[in-house]
Every structure is written in C-alpha cells, then in structure tokens.
Amino acid sequence: MPGTPSRTWRQIRSGLAYLYYAVGAVGLLLCVEMRQWLRGRDPIAAQRMLSRGYASFVRVMQALDVIHVRTHGLEVLEGPGPRLVVANHPSLIDSALIVSRLPQADNFVSPEWARVPVIGRLATAVAALTSDAGPATVADAAARLRDGRSVVMFPEATRSPRDGLGRFHRGAAHVALASGCDLLPLVIR
What we know:
The protein is mainly alpha-helical. It has helices at about 5-40, 45-65, 95-100, 110-115, 115-125, 135-145, 170-180; strands at about 85, 110, 130, 150-155, 185. A three-stranded parallel β-sheet has the order 4-1-5. A two-stranded parallel ribbon has the order 2-3. Helix 1 (about 5-40) packs antiparallel against helix 2 (about 45-65), helix 1 crosses helix 5 and helix 6 (about 135-145) crosses helix 7 (about 170-180). The chain is globular and about 55 Å long.
C-alpha cells in the first residue's frame, strides 16, 4: 500500500544509496583526474578505481538493505582476462554489480549517458567504449580482448523488460568472432 511506513522507509534508504552514488561519482572523478594530472592518463588504473568505487556502492546498498546479492559461479570473473562478459540488464545498477567483481573491465557507454557531465568524464577517463560507433567499436573491443582485458556488454542495449529478455543486438557476437574470445554469459535477477 503506497505511503505505508515500510515503503516510505525503503524509499528513504534507496534515496540515501543513490545520494551516496552521486557524491561518490563526483569524488571518484576528482580522484581519477587528480591521479591523471599527477601520473598521466591511465585508463586501466581508472578502471580499477571505478571497480573499487562500484564495490563500495554495492556494499552501501546492501548495508542499507536496498538490495540483496546472492551469487553463483562468480569465480569465473576472478583473475586476469581476457573475458567477454555478456549480461542481461534489468536495472540501473547492473554495471556496478558486475564491474565491482572485476579487477579490470572495459565498459560500454550509451551516447545519452556519455552526455551526463560526471559520467561522461568518467567514461572518458576509463576509456569506455561507445555503443554507437558500429564496426569501429567492434574492432576496439576485440583489440582490448586480444590484449588480455575484460569487456562487459549488455547485448539488449537497454534495460531488460520485466517479463524476460529483450531483443539481443549482434554486437557481442561480432566482438566474440573478431577477438576469438568466448562469450561469458551472466544472468542478473
């Protein structure tokens, strides 16, 4: 029932979690840019910082009882790459859940998210792949995999519908074929 104390309390906890995310994103951007200013541009170092930032966000959401995380078989994400992780995309926190488990991850960013000032600057710092560059993106992702890196893709290219999966785009298959790297499927519920 809307307006009940438990629903209101959950909304407050969720709001606190996303406030932590927003403040954390600004703090992370400042740390990444400071590191780049002192040591030069290093997308892998920035990706590691992003992974730790996402891990912190996931822990805060768990502590606030906003999410419950149960995993099965995630040991496949441990250690060095290459790995081409493909996952469904049911929520806004999917990237955080996956990247927080990877020591290094090349992500994709949509043009819409890249225009958000803080996220766009972080995407540039971590050398995120753009989801609208077609064959150039496939070649770039495949090259990163051949270099031993991990790449995370959401083949639906948008949020999954509530009742299952959306239509898959062919980008992940093209990247797998171009790189010779197997797809590593990941299911988020």
